[in-house]
Design brief:
Elements lengths: L1 E2 L4 H11 L4 E3 L4 E2 L2 E2 H13 L15 E2 H12 L5 E3 L1 H18 L7 H7 L8 H6 L9 H4 L4
Length: about 150
C-alpha cells in the first residue's frame, strides 16, 4: 500500500478521521507499506535502469497491521484513532454506499470489493527489488515515513 500526501485512500482516511467517522475492523490485517517517495524511486529505476524486466515486489522492511497504520496516521494528524467495529458492519456500510451510489448514479466511495481486498494481508520478499532496483529506501519503516503523511 502506497502512503503519503495526496494518495486517495490516505486522504479519504484523513477526511473520515477529522469527522470521527473512521472505523476499522478488529482483526489485524498485515500490510507492507511503501512511501510515495520510495514508490516513485522504484518506478524511475524500473524505467531507466538497464536490464530491468519482470515484476518486482517493492515494500518497506517492517510488517505493520492496517489497524496500527491507521492509529499512527491519526496520531500524526492529531485525531482520535479509528473505532474498532465488527467486519460485518463495515461490509454492510460498503453495501449501503453501493446502493446509494447506484440510486444517485455516482461512483461509490466505498465498495464491498475494496473492503474484501483490504482484509487480505499483504507481505512479501523484497530482496530482488533491493538488489536490482533500489538498494536503500528513503523511508524503510512506517516510523521513518510518518512525516510524509
Amino acid at each position: 500500500m502506497i502512503y503519503g500526501r495526496g494518495i486517495l485512500m490516505i486522504e479519504a482516511a484523513r477526511w473520515l478521521a477529522r469527522r470521527r467517522l473512521l472505523c476499522v475492523w478488529r482483526e489485524p490485517t498485515l500490510f507492507q507499506l511503501l512511501s510515495t517517495a520510495d514508490y516513485l524511486r522504484a518506478v524511475e529505476a524500473a524505467i531507466f535502469k538497464p536490464g530491468v524486466q519482470g515484476i518486482y515486489h517493492v515494500g518497506d522492511e517492517q510488517p505493520v497491521t492496517l489497524q496500527e497504520f491507521l492509529d499512527q496516521a491519526c496520531r500524526v494528524w492529531g485525531y482520535q484513532p479509528p473505532v474498532r467495529i465488527p467486519f460485518s458492519m463495515i461490509y454492510t456500510a460498503a453495501w449501503l454506499c453501493e446502493c446509494l451510489a447506484r440510486i444517485a448514479r455516482t461512483p461509490s466511495p466505498l465498495t464491498r470489493d475494496f473492503v474484501r481486498l483490504g482484509r487480505v494481508s499483504h507481505w512479501g520478499d523484497t530482496g530482488r527489488a533491493r538488489k536490482e532496483l533500489i538498494p536503500q529506501l528513503l523511508y524503510p519503516t512506517l516510523e521513518t515515513g510518518l512525516s510524509t503523511l
